[in-house]
Amino acid sequence: MTVTHHVRVSKSEEELPREQQLAWKIAEVATDPVEVEPEVVAMIINRIIDNASVAAASLNRGPIVAARAQALSHPVSTGGAGSSIFGLASSGAEPQLSSPEWAAWANGVAVRELDYHDTFLAAEYSHPGDNIPPILAVAQHVGADGRALVRGIATGYEIQMDLVRAICLHKHKIDHVAHIGPSAAAGIGTLLGLDTETISQAVAQGLHTTTATRQSRKGEISTWKAHAPAFAGKMAVEAVDRAMRGQTSPSPIYEGEDGVIAWMLDGPDASYDVPLPAKGEAKRAILDSYTKEHSAEYQAQAWIDLARKLHHERPELADPANISAIVLHTSHHTHYVIGSGANDPQKYDPQASRETLDHSIPYIFAVALQDGGWHHVDSYTPARAARPDTVQLWQRITTAEDAEWTRRYHSEDPDEKAFGGRVEIELADGTRLVDEIAVADAHPLGARPFARENYIAKFRMLAEPVLEPAEIERFLELVQRLPELTADEVRELNIVAAPGVIDLAAAPKGLF
């Protein structure tokens, strides 16, 4: 059964015992030798495929080119054999490897760039697949086998999602990647078989070094949005290294009088109830997460599906001449973060960056309504965003918070939890159209829930332009044997671009 840990701020004179601190409780979960259930193993395989899919589609995008160049500037560290970098050969005559923290950095950026991998939403937002690059990088460096990798990833998902269930960061304008530092550190601790004391120190360091503001997701969104979770994963690798060398951390990091809760979150009188698996309880959190069919913010997934449906049922809606106004009645988060409630003029700017457009539900709904679908590249091109009829339709779309959709968004009942809303369309002829959607089609409760074949199809679609057919088949065969992989096979758990796809010489130059 799950154990709920009451976490509150403690004054310095209380001397909160380390065993009662949340970082220690997280470490106890990480050291619990409970086996990973087959259903969880299968989903971990799905998510490694999913990460590789979106990384393949990103191999030549600016943030990845820069991050990869940085990683290649750092040679393999002396403590292991090194880690692979997406797109580059990790074996053969000239393997291109890096130190694990820098491989975690480059691969984390590749996974995150298109905003196209898995998600979990509760008190906070998260992309728990961000845990995979740092845990995999360490596994390759130290020579861990597939079973150890599975155990580490299961812990990473469990800890991040349990923190997300209980502790809201965005309310205080703290970026959600602050939950990755502790979770990835815990997952690496499980992978390496470290003791509770060492993992607790790494968890605390992972948190302390990764708290930053949400300005990276506000206004004109920059390329740092892709880098932020990769930075958290990199910091987690470094935190584990320091903890293994006996270095200690700020304590108590969550509960301290000058700690994260007291000064960054709800204040000195605050408390949280954090659910963690009891000793011997399987880590099943990954099963509550869900991936994306479309390359856009998760709250946009259901709206794209609804727009796609309306496009086919009512094609006249694509013409702005037929529309007076469209209002998307939705949750607090959707309205204030990616909707008109954010009060960001950039969300209506045809010259906005891709990162901004994927956080603009008015833009996304307009394009999906006109095109009857969504494409990870074509839907974001400057020409597509500036098309006059799209701009006209886009400007007529606003959002509004609806208390019931907010309640369902925060519901802990998986059968009731929803991320969509109700659309009300006022047509130019005076008639009105109302429709709604609760969850995306690909959601476990949606019209077409994602299964293994969908993850594989997504991988093939995104990988075919940049990977040779034999490489696609090699990766898919290997990853689907994950629990039985040897250490050498784990080191091959990578995707290698076709000749000519990556031009390393063209990368921008920096300090390193």
Automatic annotation (TrEMBL):
Keyword Lyase: yes
GO molecular function: 2-methylcitrate dehydratase activity
The MmgE/PrpD N-terminal domain, residue ranges: 20-271
Catalytic activity field: (2S,3S)-2-methylcitrate = 2-methyl-cis-aconitate + H2O
Source species, domain of life: Bacteria
Enzyme class: lyase
Keywords, alphabetical: Lyase
The MmgE/PrpD C-terminal domain, residue ranges: 294-482
Biological source species: Leucobacter triazinivorans
Family that this chain belongs to: Belongs to the PrpD family.
InterPro entries per UniProt: MmgE/PrpD_sf, MmgE/PrpD_sf_1, MmgE/PrpD_sf_2, MmgE_PrpD, MmgE_PrpD_C, MmgE_PrpD_N
Subunit structure of this chain's protein: Monomer.
Protein name: 2-methylcitrate dehydratase
Pfam families the record matches: MmgE_PrpD_C, MmgE_PrpD_N
Enzyme Commission designation: 4.2.1.79
The keyword Lyase appears for this protein: yes
Gene3D superfamilies (UniProt xref): 2-methylcitrate dehydratase PrpD (3.30.1330.120)
